[in-house]
Amino acid sequence: MDVKFWGVRSDVPSSLSTEEMQSRVKQAVLFAHEAWKVNPDLPPDEVIASLPVHIKRLIGGETRCLEITAGTDRIIIDVGTGARRLGYDLMMRGVKGEFNVILTSTRWDHVQGWPFFVPVYIPGNSFTLFSSVSDLRERLERQQDFAFFPVGFQESPSTKTFAVLTETSQHIQSFQVQCFRALDAMSSDSLRITHSGRTLLLVSAALIRKRPEIAEGASLILLQDVDTSAVDVYEATRHLAARVVFTDHAPALSDREASMQPFTSASELDQMEV
């Protein structure tokens, strides 16, 4: 089972400003200049690999979207703006037919990419949309009301069905999935996904503090909805799994700030094996 991050920002998309990009390029040039003074034959790829993390990697600006795969089976978690790029990538890979999408919230950063997700507009594609709420269809329809978007939710030619997730484990293709409802309006639902004996836990900081037992046996914990107490949450959870990774980053979090933390922060287009 693998997870790929197509968007890891919370709230709103955030891109580098011109000044930030120029500063990053300047730092890279100066670093390369010093490296080539020592070894003029150093290949460019090796120079790039040796750059500080906050220069050579971008958290990225897209909002929440994850792709979980195991062979040809696939679950998409949340459809923030990262879903736009995922949609194009799926088309390039020739992926079509049945899609399973889980929404852990219907706040904008979880759903704002749905109207721009190209597979939705392909006749013959079918979507099962899972969430913990019974009125998901109505919520998505409101997002695409003509006052806000020119194409209505039901006007796209793909077929759509809806299903409710609970804490009771259920199969989605070859995955076993449990859903834990958000504890408050500021948190998202948490998911425990198991495949071939490996478990991924996508969990809010609020829930893991209250119910650490849901992390039992997890191979990878993805922490979401984390505020300024991130280090405290990390210290409280790092013993629960082999790896703990932070996602769902605030728009203002810079790559330098992320690189200075004691924990791993997911970046856009990262791929991890569970």
Radius of gyration, in angstroms, nearest whole number:
20 Å
Mean pLDDT: 92
Secondary-structure element string? EHHHEEHEHEHEEEEEHEHEHEE
Strand percentage, roughly?
Answer: 25-35%
Whole-number count of domains: 2
Range of helix content: 25-40%
Poorly predicted tracts of residues: none
- Name the overall outline: globular
Termini gap: 6 Å
The first-level CATH class of the largest domain is given as Alpha Beta
CATH topology of the largest domain: Metallo-beta-lactamase, Chain A
Quickly describe the structure:
This protein is of the alpha/beta class and about 270 residues long. It contains 9 helices and 14 strands.
Can you walk through the features of this model?
The strands form two sheets. A seven-stranded mixed beta sheet has the order 6-5-4-3-2-1-14. Strands 7-8-9-10-11-12-13 form a seven-stranded mixed beta sheet. Strand 9 and strand 10 form a beta hairpin. The longest helix is centred in the first third of the chain and has 21 residues. It is an alpha/beta fold. The model has no long low-confidence stretch (mean pLDDT 92). It contains nine helices and 14 strands. The chain folds into two domains: 227 residues, Ribonuclease Z/Hydroxyacylglutathione hydrolase-like (Metallo-beta-lactamase, Chain A, 4-Layer Sandwich); 38 residues.
